[in-house]
Amino acid sequence: IYRDLLRNYENADTISIDTLSLEELVQEERAKEILELNRLSEKVCYLHTSLVYYRNANSKMGQTCYQVWKTLLQRVGGSPNTWNILGHTLGISLVDLEYIKNSVKEDPVDMILKVFMQDDNATLDKIINAFVKLERFDILKALEEPLNNMSECFTREDSGYQSESGKGKREVITFPKILQVHLPPALSKKYVENYKPKEPSLRPSINWEKSKPQKECPVLFLTYTEDGLETALNIQGYVSNWVDSPQVKVLTLNGKREEVVQHPEKFIRENFEKADFVVPIITTGYLEIIKSHAPQVPSSNDNLDYKYVNFIYNLIVNHYIHATGCLNEKVRSVLPQDANVDVLRSISMYPDLMPWTYETNFDEHFKSFLFIE
Protein backbone atom coordinates (compact mmCIF):
# COMPACT_ATOMS: atom_id res chain seq x y z
CA ILE A 1 0.00 0.00 0.00
CA TYR A 2 2.83 2.38 0.92
CA ARG A 3 4.50 1.75 -2.43
CA ASP A 4 1.22 2.40 -4.26
CA LEU A 5 0.75 5.67 -2.39
CA LEU A 6 4.33 6.66 -3.15
CA ARG A 7 3.86 5.82 -6.81
CA ASN A 8 0.71 7.98 -6.96
CA TYR A 9 2.49 10.79 -5.17
CA GLU A 10 5.38 10.63 -7.64
CA ASN A 11 2.93 10.66 -10.54
CA ALA A 12 1.18 13.68 -9.05
CA ASP A 13 4.46 15.57 -8.90
CA THR A 14 5.21 14.63 -12.48
CA ILE A 15 1.78 15.79 -13.60
CA SER A 16 2.20 19.10 -11.77
CA ILE A 17 5.60 19.68 -13.35
CA ASP A 18 4.27 18.76 -16.80
CA THR A 19 1.28 21.06 -16.34
CA LEU A 20 3.53 23.94 -15.30
CA SER A 21 5.74 23.36 -18.33
CA LEU A 22 2.72 23.28 -20.57
CA GLU A 23 1.46 26.56 -19.13
CA GLU A 24 4.85 28.14 -19.75
CA LEU A 25 4.81 26.92 -23.34
CA VAL A 26 1.31 28.33 -23.83
CA GLN A 27 2.40 31.67 -22.40
CA GLU A 28 5.41 31.74 -24.71
CA GLU A 29 3.21 30.97 -27.70
CA ARG A 30 0.74 33.65 -26.63
CA ALA A 31 3.57 36.18 -26.29
CA LYS A 32 4.71 35.34 -29.83
CA GLU A 33 1.15 35.69 -31.11
CA ILE A 34 0.76 39.09 -29.45
CA LEU A 35 4.07 40.21 -30.96
CA GLU A 36 2.85 39.15 -34.40
CA LEU A 37 -0.46 40.90 -33.80
CA ASN A 38 1.36 44.09 -32.85
CA ARG A 39 3.22 43.90 -36.14
CA LEU A 40 -0.04 43.27 -37.96
CA SER A 41 -1.62 46.20 -36.15
CA GLU A 42 1.20 48.44 -37.39
CA LYS A 43 0.65 47.22 -40.95
CA VAL A 44 -3.02 48.21 -41.01
CA CYS A 45 -2.95 51.30 -38.78
CA TYR A 46 -3.35 53.54 -41.85
CA LEU A 47 -6.14 51.47 -43.46
CA HIS A 48 -9.61 52.80 -42.74
CA THR A 49 -12.33 50.30 -41.85
CA SER A 50 -14.38 51.47 -44.84
CA LEU A 51 -11.92 49.63 -47.09
CA VAL A 52 -13.46 46.28 -46.14
CA TYR A 53 -16.52 47.37 -48.15
CA TYR A 54 -14.55 47.92 -51.34
CA ARG A 55 -15.82 45.47 -53.97
CA ASN A 56 -14.14 44.47 -57.20
CA ALA A 57 -14.20 40.76 -57.94
CA ASN A 58 -11.73 41.20 -60.81
CA SER A 59 -8.93 42.64 -58.68
CA LYS A 60 -6.86 41.19 -55.86
CA MET A 61 -7.54 44.31 -53.82
CA GLY A 62 -11.30 43.87 -54.12
CA GLN A 63 -11.06 40.18 -53.27
CA THR A 64 -8.89 40.70 -50.18
CA CYS A 65 -11.09 43.52 -48.85
CA TYR A 66 -14.12 41.28 -49.25
CA GLN A 67 -12.32 38.41 -47.49
CA VAL A 68 -11.57 40.56 -44.43
CA TRP A 69 -15.22 41.67 -44.26
CA LYS A 70 -16.47 38.09 -44.69
CA THR A 71 -14.14 36.75 -41.98
CA LEU A 72 -15.27 39.42 -39.53
CA LEU A 73 -18.94 38.64 -40.08
CA GLN A 74 -18.44 34.88 -39.85
CA ARG A 75 -16.16 34.81 -36.82
CA VAL A 76 -17.78 37.56 -34.77
CA GLY A 77 -21.28 36.53 -35.77
CA GLY A 78 -20.53 32.94 -34.83
CA SER A 79 -20.11 33.85 -31.15
CA PRO A 80 -23.21 34.84 -29.15
CA ASN A 81 -23.32 38.56 -28.30
CA THR A 82 -19.72 39.14 -29.45
CA TRP A 83 -20.91 41.86 -31.83
CA ASN A 84 -22.34 43.77 -28.85
CA ILE A 85 -19.14 43.44 -26.82
CA LEU A 86 -17.03 44.46 -29.82
CA GLY A 87 -19.21 47.51 -30.40
CA HIS A 88 -18.87 48.55 -26.78
CA THR A 89 -15.08 48.08 -26.92
CA LEU A 90 -14.90 50.22 -30.07
CA GLY A 91 -16.73 53.02 -28.26
CA ILE A 92 -20.15 52.73 -29.89
CA SER A 93 -22.81 54.20 -27.61
CA LEU A 94 -25.25 52.05 -25.64
CA VAL A 95 -28.12 53.81 -27.39
CA ASP A 96 -26.78 52.75 -30.81
CA LEU A 97 -26.15 49.20 -29.59
CA GLU A 98 -29.71 48.95 -28.27
CA TYR A 99 -31.05 50.29 -31.56
CA ILE A 100 -29.06 47.69 -33.53
CA LYS A 101 -30.29 44.94 -31.20
CA ASN A 102 -33.97 45.87 -31.23
CA SER A 103 -34.68 47.74 -34.45
CA VAL A 104 -32.32 46.59 -37.20
CA LYS A 105 -32.88 43.48 -39.32
CA GLU A 106 -29.43 43.47 -40.94
CA ASP A 107 -26.43 41.54 -39.60
CA PRO A 108 -25.43 43.26 -36.31
CA VAL A 109 -21.71 42.76 -37.01
CA ASP A 110 -22.15 44.56 -40.32
CA MET A 111 -23.98 47.39 -38.54
CA ILE A 112 -21.18 47.70 -35.95
CA LEU A 113 -18.59 48.08 -38.71
CA LYS A 114 -20.69 50.66 -40.55
CA VAL A 115 -21.34 52.72 -37.44
CA PHE A 116 -17.68 52.53 -36.40
CA MET A 117 -16.35 53.54 -39.82
CA GLN A 118 -18.19 56.88 -39.70
CA ASP A 119 -15.26 58.08 -37.58
CA ASP A 120 -12.42 59.40 -39.73
CA ASN A 121 -9.98 57.69 -37.36
CA ALA A 122 -11.69 54.29 -37.50
CA THR A 123 -8.66 52.34 -38.70
CA LEU A 124 -8.38 48.56 -38.75
CA ASP A 125 -5.72 48.45 -36.03
CA LYS A 126 -8.37 49.60 -33.54
CA ILE A 127 -10.42 46.50 -34.36
CA ILE A 128 -7.35 44.31 -33.84
CA ASN A 129 -6.61 46.02 -30.52
CA ALA A 130 -10.22 45.49 -29.45
CA PHE A 131 -9.96 41.75 -30.03
CA VAL A 132 -6.63 41.65 -28.18
CA LYS A 133 -8.28 43.39 -25.24
CA LEU A 134 -11.12 40.86 -25.37
CA GLU A 135 -8.57 38.01 -25.68
CA ARG A 136 -10.33 36.70 -28.77
CA PHE A 137 -7.20 35.22 -30.30
CA ASP A 138 -9.30 32.75 -32.28
CA ILE A 139 -10.83 35.62 -34.24
CA LEU A 140 -7.48 37.36 -34.59
CA LYS A 141 -5.85 34.19 -35.92
CA ALA A 142 -8.58 33.90 -38.55
CA LEU A 143 -8.08 37.55 -39.54
CA GLU A 144 -4.29 37.41 -39.71
CA GLU A 145 -3.91 36.11 -43.26
CA PRO A 146 -6.70 38.22 -44.85
CA LEU A 147 -5.39 41.39 -43.18
CA ASN A 148 -1.81 40.66 -44.25
CA ASN A 149 -2.99 40.17 -47.83
CA MET A 150 -5.01 43.37 -47.65
CA SER A 151 -2.06 45.31 -46.27
CA GLU A 152 0.15 44.14 -49.14
CA CYS A 153 -2.31 45.58 -51.65
CA PHE A 154 -1.77 49.05 -50.22
CA THR A 155 1.98 48.92 -49.51
CA ARG A 156 3.36 47.92 -52.90
CA GLU A 157 5.14 50.79 -54.57
CA ASP A 158 3.03 50.37 -57.69
CA SER A 159 -0.28 50.20 -55.83
CA GLY A 160 -0.96 53.89 -56.28
CA TYR A 161 -2.36 54.17 -52.76
CA GLN A 162 0.73 55.11 -50.78
CA SER A 163 0.65 58.68 -49.60
CA GLU A 164 2.63 60.72 -47.14
CA SER A 165 1.34 63.69 -45.21
CA GLY A 166 3.29 66.89 -44.94
CA LYS A 167 4.62 65.77 -41.57
CA GLY A 168 6.07 62.55 -42.94
CA LYS A 169 3.30 60.45 -41.49
CA ARG A 170 1.32 58.12 -43.70
CA GLU A 171 -2.22 59.30 -44.29
CA VAL A 172 -5.21 57.11 -43.63
CA ILE A 173 -6.47 55.46 -46.81
CA THR A 174 -10.21 55.32 -47.37
CA PHE A 175 -12.76 55.21 -50.19
CA PRO A 176 -15.34 57.81 -49.13
CA LYS A 177 -16.48 58.70 -52.64
CA ILE A 178 -16.70 55.18 -54.01
CA LEU A 179 -18.45 53.36 -51.22
CA GLN A 180 -22.22 53.25 -50.96
CA VAL A 181 -22.90 52.19 -47.37
CA HIS A 182 -26.40 52.79 -46.07
CA LEU A 183 -27.32 53.24 -42.42
CA PRO A 184 -30.67 53.86 -40.71
CA PRO A 185 -31.05 57.59 -39.93
CA ALA A 186 -30.87 56.89 -36.19
CA LEU A 187 -27.35 55.46 -36.63
CA SER A 188 -26.08 58.04 -39.09
CA LYS A 189 -23.44 60.23 -37.47
CA LYS A 190 -24.18 63.08 -39.85
CA TYR A 191 -27.80 63.09 -38.76
CA VAL A 192 -27.46 62.19 -35.08
CA GLU A 193 -24.86 64.87 -34.31
CA ASN A 194 -27.28 67.57 -35.39
CA TYR A 195 -30.36 65.92 -33.96
CA LYS A 196 -31.65 66.53 -30.44
CA PRO A 197 -34.89 64.72 -29.62
CA LYS A 198 -37.33 67.16 -28.06
CA GLU A 199 -40.99 67.59 -27.57
CA PRO A 200 -42.42 69.51 -30.52
CA SER A 201 -42.12 73.25 -30.61
CA LEU A 202 -45.39 75.12 -30.66
CA ARG A 203 -44.76 76.48 -34.14
CA PRO A 204 -43.75 74.58 -37.29
CA SER A 205 -40.54 75.56 -39.05
CA ILE A 206 -40.49 78.77 -41.08
CA ASN A 207 -39.72 76.89 -44.30
CA TRP A 208 -42.64 74.56 -43.74
CA GLU A 209 -44.94 77.47 -42.96
CA LYS A 210 -44.07 79.16 -46.24
CA SER A 211 -44.49 76.03 -48.33
CA LYS A 212 -47.62 74.68 -46.64
CA PRO A 213 -50.60 74.85 -49.00
CA GLN A 214 -53.55 76.77 -47.65
CA LYS A 215 -56.54 74.46 -47.34
CA GLU A 216 -60.11 75.11 -46.38
CA CYS A 217 -60.12 71.85 -44.41
CA PRO A 218 -56.78 70.61 -43.00
CA VAL A 219 -56.46 66.81 -42.72
CA LEU A 220 -54.99 64.66 -39.93
CA PHE A 221 -54.40 61.04 -41.01
CA LEU A 222 -54.38 58.74 -37.95
CA THR A 223 -52.50 55.42 -37.88
CA TYR A 224 -52.59 53.10 -34.88
CA THR A 225 -52.80 49.54 -33.59
CA GLU A 226 -55.46 48.01 -31.38
CA ASP A 227 -54.05 49.41 -28.13
CA GLY A 228 -54.23 52.92 -29.63
CA LEU A 229 -57.94 52.81 -30.49
CA GLU A 230 -59.05 54.70 -27.38
CA THR A 231 -56.63 57.54 -28.10
CA ALA A 232 -57.76 57.63 -31.75
CA LEU A 233 -61.37 58.04 -30.63
CA ASN A 234 -60.33 60.71 -28.13
CA ILE A 235 -58.50 62.67 -30.84
CA GLN A 236 -61.59 62.66 -33.02
CA GLY A 237 -63.51 63.99 -30.03
CA TYR A 238 -60.95 66.73 -29.33
CA VAL A 239 -61.06 67.97 -32.93
CA SER A 240 -64.85 67.93 -33.08
CA ASN A 241 -64.86 70.27 -30.07
CA TRP A 242 -62.75 72.91 -31.83
CA VAL A 243 -65.86 75.01 -32.41
CA ASP A 244 -63.94 78.28 -32.39
CA SER A 245 -61.53 77.08 -35.11
CA PRO A 246 -61.74 76.30 -38.83
CA GLN A 247 -62.91 72.81 -39.63
CA VAL A 248 -60.29 70.05 -39.44
CA LYS A 249 -60.83 66.59 -40.90
CA VAL A 250 -59.62 63.48 -39.03
CA LEU A 251 -59.10 60.54 -41.39
CA THR A 252 -59.03 56.88 -40.36
CA LEU A 253 -59.07 53.90 -42.70
CA ASN A 254 -61.91 52.23 -40.86
CA GLY A 255 -63.93 55.42 -41.13
CA LYS A 256 -63.59 55.23 -44.93
CA ARG A 257 -63.97 51.48 -45.12
CA GLU A 258 -66.07 51.31 -48.30
CA GLU A 259 -63.56 53.42 -50.24
CA VAL A 260 -60.49 51.71 -48.78
CA VAL A 261 -61.44 48.09 -49.50
CA GLN A 262 -61.75 48.73 -53.24
CA HIS A 263 -58.10 49.83 -53.70
CA PRO A 264 -56.44 50.02 -50.24
CA GLU A 265 -52.86 50.82 -51.30
CA LYS A 266 -54.02 53.45 -53.81
CA PHE A 267 -56.32 55.08 -51.26
CA ILE A 268 -53.61 55.15 -48.58
CA ARG A 269 -50.94 56.58 -50.88
CA GLU A 270 -53.19 59.34 -52.19
CA ASN A 271 -54.43 60.39 -48.77
CA PHE A 272 -50.94 60.15 -47.27
CA GLU A 273 -49.84 62.82 -49.76
CA LYS A 274 -52.94 64.96 -49.23
CA ALA A 275 -52.84 64.91 -45.44
CA ASP A 276 -51.36 67.91 -43.64
CA PHE A 277 -50.04 65.56 -40.97
CA VAL A 278 -49.86 61.81 -40.51
CA VAL A 279 -50.46 61.09 -36.83
CA PRO A 280 -49.10 57.76 -35.53
CA ILE A 281 -50.38 56.85 -32.07
CA ILE A 282 -47.30 55.46 -30.36
CA THR A 283 -48.15 52.45 -28.22
CA THR A 284 -46.40 49.22 -27.33
CA GLY A 285 -48.38 47.43 -30.04
CA TYR A 286 -47.49 50.03 -32.67
CA LEU A 287 -43.76 49.79 -31.94
CA GLU A 288 -43.87 45.99 -31.98
CA ILE A 289 -45.54 45.97 -35.39
CA ILE A 290 -43.16 48.41 -37.10
CA LYS A 291 -40.14 46.75 -35.49
CA SER A 292 -40.98 43.22 -36.56
CA HIS A 293 -41.95 43.94 -40.18
CA ALA A 294 -43.93 40.71 -39.86
CA PRO A 295 -47.24 40.14 -41.64
CA GLN A 296 -50.04 41.30 -39.40
CA VAL A 297 -52.78 38.96 -38.31
CA PRO A 298 -56.17 40.62 -38.80
CA SER A 299 -57.92 41.35 -35.52
CA SER A 300 -61.28 39.84 -34.67
CA ASN A 301 -63.09 42.99 -35.82
CA ASP A 302 -60.93 43.32 -38.97
CA ASN A 303 -60.10 46.97 -38.31
CA LEU A 304 -58.37 48.38 -41.41
CA ASP A 305 -56.28 50.83 -39.39
CA TYR A 306 -54.60 47.91 -37.59
CA LYS A 307 -54.11 46.01 -40.82
CA TYR A 308 -52.17 48.71 -42.71
CA VAL A 309 -49.94 50.10 -39.95
CA ASN A 310 -46.76 48.73 -41.55
CA PHE A 311 -47.74 49.95 -45.01
CA ILE A 312 -48.26 53.48 -43.71
CA TYR A 313 -45.05 53.35 -41.69
CA ASN A 314 -43.08 52.42 -44.82
CA LEU A 315 -44.54 55.51 -46.50
CA ILE A 316 -43.44 57.56 -43.49
CA VAL A 317 -39.87 56.24 -43.73
CA ASN A 318 -39.62 56.80 -47.49
CA HIS A 319 -41.02 60.32 -47.22
CA TYR A 320 -38.70 61.14 -44.33
CA ILE A 321 -35.55 59.94 -46.10
CA HIS A 322 -36.17 60.66 -49.77
CA ALA A 323 -38.69 63.50 -49.92
CA THR A 324 -37.35 65.75 -47.17
CA GLY A 325 -33.77 64.57 -46.58
CA CYS A 326 -34.44 63.55 -42.97
CA LEU A 327 -36.41 66.68 -42.08
CA ASN A 328 -39.70 65.60 -40.62
CA GLU A 329 -42.41 67.79 -42.11
CA LYS A 330 -45.16 65.19 -42.36
CA VAL A 331 -45.44 63.28 -39.08
CA ARG A 332 -46.66 64.44 -35.68
CA SER A 333 -46.88 61.51 -33.26
CA VAL A 334 -49.09 61.26 -30.19
CA LEU A 335 -48.38 59.32 -27.00
CA PRO A 336 -51.48 58.15 -25.10
CA GLN A 337 -52.17 59.41 -21.60
CA ASP A 338 -51.10 56.09 -20.09
CA ALA A 339 -47.91 55.63 -22.17
CA ASN A 340 -45.44 53.44 -20.26
CA VAL A 341 -41.73 53.93 -19.71
CA ASP A 342 -40.72 51.44 -22.43
CA VAL A 343 -42.61 53.44 -25.05
CA LEU A 344 -40.94 56.67 -23.92
CA ARG A 345 -37.55 54.99 -24.08
CA SER A 346 -38.15 53.46 -27.50
CA ILE A 347 -39.60 56.48 -29.31
CA SER A 348 -36.21 58.24 -29.31
CA MET A 349 -34.90 55.46 -31.58
CA TYR A 350 -37.30 56.50 -34.35
CA PRO A 351 -36.38 59.97 -35.65
CA ASP A 352 -38.92 59.51 -38.45
CA LEU A 353 -41.66 59.55 -35.77
CA MET A 354 -40.45 62.82 -34.22
CA PRO A 355 -41.63 65.20 -32.92
CA TRP A 356 -44.21 63.78 -30.55
CA THR A 357 -46.66 65.17 -28.06
CA TYR A 358 -48.70 63.74 -25.22
CA GLU A 359 -52.40 63.22 -25.75
CA THR A 360 -53.02 65.62 -22.86
CA ASN A 361 -51.33 68.40 -24.89
CA PHE A 362 -53.05 67.51 -28.17
CA ASP A 363 -55.28 70.59 -28.39
CA GLU A 364 -52.52 73.10 -27.72
CA HIS A 365 -49.87 71.58 -29.96
CA PHE A 366 -51.98 70.53 -32.92
CA LYS A 367 -53.78 73.84 -33.11
CA SER A 368 -50.34 75.40 -33.35
CA PHE A 369 -49.20 72.90 -35.99
CA LEU A 370 -52.24 73.72 -38.10
CA PHE A 371 -51.96 77.50 -37.52
CA ILE A 372 -55.14 77.57 -35.56
CA GLU A 373 -55.22 80.08 -32.77
From TrEMBL:
Gene3D superfamilies: Death Domain, Fas. GO terms for biological process: signal transduction. The lineage of its organism: Eukaryota, Metazoa, Ecdysozoa, Arthropoda, Hexapoda. Residues 83-147 form the Death domain. This is Death domain-containing protein. InterPro entries: DEATH-like_dom_sf, Death_dom.
